[in-house]
Amino acid sequence: MTTALPTPGTGAPAGSDATPRDLPATDDHMPAAASTGHDAGPRHPAMPSSDGDTVPNPGDGAADAAVESGAGEASVERDRPVAATAVSEPEPPAAPQSLPGEPGEWRGAVLVTGTDTGVGKTIATAAIAAAAQGAGLRVAVIKPGQTGTATGDPADAEVIARLAGPDTVRTLASFPDPLAPLAAARVAGLEPIELYSVVDEIRAEADKHDLVLIEGAGGLLVPMGLRPSGEPWTVADLAVTLDAKAVVVARAGLGTLNHTALTLEALDRRGVPARIVIGSWPAAPELVHWTNLTDLVPHLAGAIPDGAGAIDPGVFRRSASGWLTPTLYGVLDDWRTWAEEL
Ligand SMILES: Nc1ncnc2c1ncn2[C@@H]1O[C@H](COP(=O)(O)OP(=O)(O)OP(=O)(O)O)[C@@H](O)[C@H]1O
Ligand SMILES: [Mg+2]
Questions:
Q1: Tell me, what's the pLDDT at 4?
Q2: pTM for the structure as a whole
Q3: Which EC number(s) does the record attach to this protein (predicted)?
Q4: Assigned CATH class of 108-340
Q5: 208 catalytic residue (yes or no)
């Protein structure tokens, strides 16, 4: 496998030598990858079951599709060369790579940005907040700039409060038009958001909480407001100033590898450690979703199932840990098993 995605912390491309395909499963209580298959027992001890009281894991819908297409067999015998014509046999994702910045380090300020607007940052933020709260952390969520308040859509903070119920949810500035925050301030004749006022607010919340999730607006380099010097600032600047880590919420479908690589590269050159969460994993994944998953796995820390934003908040909170890896307070610690149980 080759990929243009940079390896976190190095900026180097993760080539075939760097893929985790041959790494052992990282958790003793997970079944070894080679011994897993359709009848390989429970998915994960702490995964929610699909008994109507919880939401299936992202793999569940995929499971049906892949079983129908015979992909399970290919998964079990992963070392067998895949025939060029076997388009219905997607390559199984490999086990997670061992990367710096694992559990315990994702505390304090964590920026949730995305490869674009509308990629599922709000739902992913809610899921991370719910999982972290479930792990016993005190969690705050901050939305520095909410735009589009005149559209009648619920504000992101409202959605997160309803779904996850973190200890604190705050919106620092709101603007009526659905534009980037700096442009929205300009057209409304309102004061643009000032970088250091946001930094101060977040630091104050970090003193009172274990984890402060900061949901950006749109993607990483969207102009958020103005510095005291009059220069525009972005959430990338915010992450650097706060020494924060970043979660990049990405789409599952075609185009995501380029958008994700661009975003990871921009974070890497600023020295911001980052992980990816897929914002909306389809119930019936196609080949492109599986190949994208394979390429994103070295950086992946979660995948939120499509439809998660519409479910009952109690079910959302019970299910969230099953969508995220331990880095983000979840229990999804073996992508290989996740995919091979198809
Ligand atoms: N996993 C999901 N389940 C259900 N709906 C989703 C999911 N992910 C995203 N959506 C829906 O897709 C739309 C865009 O998602 P969302 O508002 O979370 O994007 P965003 O990245 O937060 O955008 P913004 O830049 O405006 O903050 C919303 O209508 C949301 O409800
Ligand atoms: Mg949002």
A1: 38
A2: 0.76
A3: 6.3.3.3
A4: alpha beta
A5: no
